[in-house]
Amino acid sequence: MSTAPPGPSTQAVMARGAGKALLGRAGAVIELLSFFLFTQMYGSQTFGLFMTLWGVVQGLAIVSDFGMTMALQRFVPGAPNEAEAGRVLKYAVNTTLSVSCLVGIAMAASAPLLARVINANAQDSQHLLTIIRLYAFAVPLWSAVEVATGAIRARAVFGPEVKVRIFYEQGFRLLFGVLFWWLGFLSLGLFISHLIGLAVTAAFALRLVNKYYGLRHLVTKTGLGGGLGREMVFYSSSMLLPNFAKKWHSWLPVIFLNMMLPGARGAEAAGVYAAARKLVSVLNVFRESFEYVLAPMTAARSDLHQREQLREMLAFATRVSVAAFIPVATLVVCYRHELLRQSGSEFVAGAGAMLILVIGRSLEVVSGPSTSILAMIGRYRIPFFNAAAGVTTTAVLAFLLIPMPELFGGGLRGSMAAAALAAAGGINMTALMGFLQVRYVYGLRPYDRRLARPVATALALSAGMVALFHFTAGMWRTGYFILGIVTLLIVLGALIRFGFAREDAQLVVPKKLARHLPFLLRR
Predict the structure, then answer these.
(1) What's the pLDDT tens digit per position in 508-520?
(2) Which of these, 203, 358, 223, 335, lies nearest to 280 by C-alpha position?
(3) What is the sign of the dihedral through the CA atoms of 380, 91, 61 and 166?
(4) pTM for the full predicted model
(5) Distances, alpha carbon 153 to alpha carbons 182, 204, 295, 439, 509, in Å
(6) Where on the phi/psi map is residue 167: left (φ > 0), alpha (ψ -120 to 50), or beta?
(7) Which of 8, 201, 306, 517 could cross-link to 169 by cystine, CB 3.0-4.6 Å?
(8) pLDDT above 90 covers what percent of the chain?
(9) How is residue 447 annotated by DSSP?
């Protein structure tokens, strides 16, 4: 099989799109800032209740979406004209918004039942019914954000989502979260501030839909047509469980911890675990950035005669994301206690769970973006069965292991470690199945010999990071954090310079940055 580099246009478009998506993920520093502030202001137990209900909302929103976000990315790139793309948009948006409103009403009506199974501390329990009924509005708001940004992504436009998802949702939530805490709304403040952020985000997301499609398509009287309508419904329904699994590998352990541990202990365990999970999510930035770009580009290149381009796209995405993952994961592992301590001393109990989650993500990233490839070119049943296997693995492991914390050291630490192992098991079950199917069913190899040098370089540089952090662990805390950030930036620069071939490095490094830092590129 040829390993010649692909045409510059395909790789360049993918690299530019991934760079914009990565910028959006890097902008999540606002989310991390709000995370640290919220845990300190509202405490681990209220934060745990918030994360538990946000997990419930995410699950219900996925049901409301009905796979339309992925359907947009599959059918819009192949639409023969604007009218056809507009009909796909209309069907997706109208379906998602109508179903999400009904689901939100059902959540509000089920508030008494949810209040009996969700654990909270004494203060939050007094307002629990009001919180659940109020937060039910998050289901249609989040569904609107998801389907609107999915529509923009289907146009292979990745930059505007940076502003919408990070600076509006997270920025407004941070602003109003601090304001409500200052006013003394310690139980309702987090939830109201998030609703405000979601409402602003949904408004701006729909504005982008108007820019790239035109909202007139949503009110036209034309339908999809029988053939395309049936195919879109069949595809979107088959994507429901895979989308559900992608979110709930992470959220199921949070919800299980809250519901299976009594009273305030359940809320605290959910909050501390959610903090560890959030910090580990930083490791997803490289893989997810390429997945965002690969999905619509794969849909546009799903024909057999374009499979060579797909192989090269997959191989390029894998070697960049795997190599970059290694030093970032090293920093997170070495600094896990210090990072958790920024939220409060009680959060350090999540260090063991954090280590397990990092190992789990390490195993996942080596499979490459196989799941996204399958969703675009695979038979509809394949992603469904992969997701079912992963969610089942997570749920079964969580149900069996969380009640046995003594296997992992006992106490809340043991329960959280058990939850982390359940999450890692489910994530890697889905990832492994996807990798094997992409490799042996569709003949797409995420690995080739070009992967060896960047990975070897990353491992060598990471070994140096471990030694440096070990000998400087007792230094002044602020200086220790600055050292970690500076070291990571230097290591990533060295990885680009010595690990990647010049052709890859030119695509990884933006042209403006390369002009200012020419030493990043090999001669």
Answers:
(1) 766 666 666 666 6
(2) 358
(3) positive
(4) 0.78
(5) 38, 15, 9, 26, 22
(6) alpha
(7) 201
(8) 22
(9) -
